Amino acid sequence: MDMSQYRNLFLSEAREYLKTINATVVALEESPEDRPGIDTLFRGSHSLKGMAASMDYADIVEIAHAMEDLMIRVRDGGLPFVTGVADLLLEGTDLIDKLMGEIEGEREPRSPTGDLPQRLSGYTPAPPSAAVALSVTDPGTAGSDSGAAARAGSPEPEPERAQPHGEVERGKDAELSTVRVRTELLDHLINLTGELITNKHRLLNIGRELGSAPLNEAVTETSKLLRALHDEVMKVRLMPFDAICDRFQRSVRALAKKSGKDLHFELEGREIGLDRGILEGLTDPLNHMLRNAVGHGMEGSAERLATGKPAKGTVKLSVARDRDRVLITVSDDGRGMDPQQMSAAAIRKGLITPEEAEQLSPRQALMLCCIPGFSTALEVTDVSGRGVGMDAVNASIQKLGGSLTIESEPGRGTRFTLTLPMTIAIIHALIVQCGAIKGAVPVTAVLRTVELRREQMATVGKRRVFYLDDEAIPLLSLNRVFGLPLGRFPDGIVPLFVTEAKGRRVGIIVDRLLGQHELFIKPLGRPLAKLHGIAGGAILGDGEVVTLLDVADLL
Amino acid sequence: MEERLLLFTLAGRGFALDLQEVAEVMEPQQSFPTPRTPGHFVGLINFHGTLTALVDFGLFLGLDARPKGLGKVLVLDTRLASLALWVDGVTCVLAGGAVSGRAPGDDDLTAALLETEYGTVRLLQVEALLDALEQGL
What we know:
The complex is a heterodimer of chains A (about 550) and B (about 140). Chain A is of the alpha+beta class. Chain A is built from 19 helices and 18 strands. In chain A, helix 3 (about 60-75) packs antiparallel against helix 4 and helix 12 (about 275-295) packs antiparallel against helix 17. Chain B has two helices and eleven strands, in the order βββββαββββββα. In chain B, strand 4 (about 40-45) and strand 5 form a beta hairpin. The longest helix of chain B is centred in the last third of the chain and has 10 residues, at about 125-135. Chain B is globular, with a radius of gyration of 14 Å.
């Protein structure tokens, strides 16, 4: 029988199980006596084994079976859920994931199971003196089951767990009311919706030209329907943040272990939905921030105790909805960042002048860490690299149409907040013109627009600036960035928009501000996808094509 | 399936593309300039909803410029790239069997030099062309 048609289904379902197992292992390290968690691990291993057996994937069966054996000993045999158990289970999921990658790539199996099945089945915890604080035995389980020790050595085949009747029914209902859809189909749906929105603007233009009231009315009605369609399609594309959480838990756990730091990792808001495209773009930046939090932000236990803090630090990743935006925060209760030290370091490195440093607010000084090459890391570690990369993080967030802010208090901790749109395919953008070029700037990157009179400009050092809220905002010409002749502005009014680049507000002068538009963003493909500073393009209602400017990258 | 080639001209010289790599041949149409691109990138065109970079292929190769507005636009298969080449004219579609001689290409962009009834033509390597265009950005 040809099983290939079931392969993708197996891979997709097995990955969900692996994700659950990984998350539960990490959670159990915090609460090793959590019985439902232990049951989840046992059921997950058991289900993986059954699914792999039905596909004849012997190596996966062997590992999952050994994981199941180990969990039987934890569940029924009084084996404490210690770090050694967690390590082995995670090693097991890693290997299964690797094997699944080989299956997916239709490659010959190259990842030997080695002695992992034996190590899983025959695991013996270290003597109590070497055990870490997480090794807490469930006294109830250990004491009440006299046959447990005997079964631990030779686990019996596990019968299917009997589910309560109601749970089975709910499961069936959910199965009947949901359907798996290929992500390509969802991408196609959003593309079609985007095209319809572009055409709506075209019809609106025609309606205006013709001055036809019935046409305008019909288009307005269509607009409402399109908005509803767009919202529904976007909802379908939303994936819970949970989809990428697994790797963060693993990453923080591994880094904390490697750097010998005792910390508690909290995750909140896993259920919040984000567009698939945004989730994909978030993984690396968030991982980087978490690495920084563990590597640089968090002190060692001795240092924490000396400053009156609990020995165990906390790193928190939380997600929350704020209307049509999503707020993601990475926070720690570590040593924090000092704005004055940040400014001093930036002056020392020649990134800013002392005069410029004086103009910076504490918040702006903290954002200096987003300037390429900036690092205040006291030492280079292999945990968090060289402390560089916040510039890349900031650029990635801006590419997704989001923004980054930093709050910190020396000695108390740091909080990075990412504000992101829920979707990236359809955005609101400010259209600007420079020479013959029309560009779109996401409104999320525009702090405000200004029509400046020439006499409002001043010169500080060698820079042209204007004052906004008593702050000297440097001015840059987008024409110059594009290599075009500078605008002339015969009426003495200079149009500009204020954005944030490298942690500082900056005024970008353009030839004209053409107003805000709703745009369906399309990728540029090869070869222009390689062009720095351009994040895509869009077709306006009149058929004109505009490029989406990634201002941070351009500057 | 027998190879078929699209023969086209630039400044009096003959070129060819594998017909499978070409999605459509169009008349020159309105394009919209892109910032920070070399001069041979004329701009973006809307090819059935796909944003496509229009490259003046003659300018890219350093050949004589054609009179403005003339020529043809060869849009490459969208699975390969979002790229259209502005050339002087299209000669014909030629069956591979009509190629009388084949020599190795003498530069990175040329897969082979083909002898045809229209003279010697350069069969282009699309991948190498894309690499060269990307490197110039």
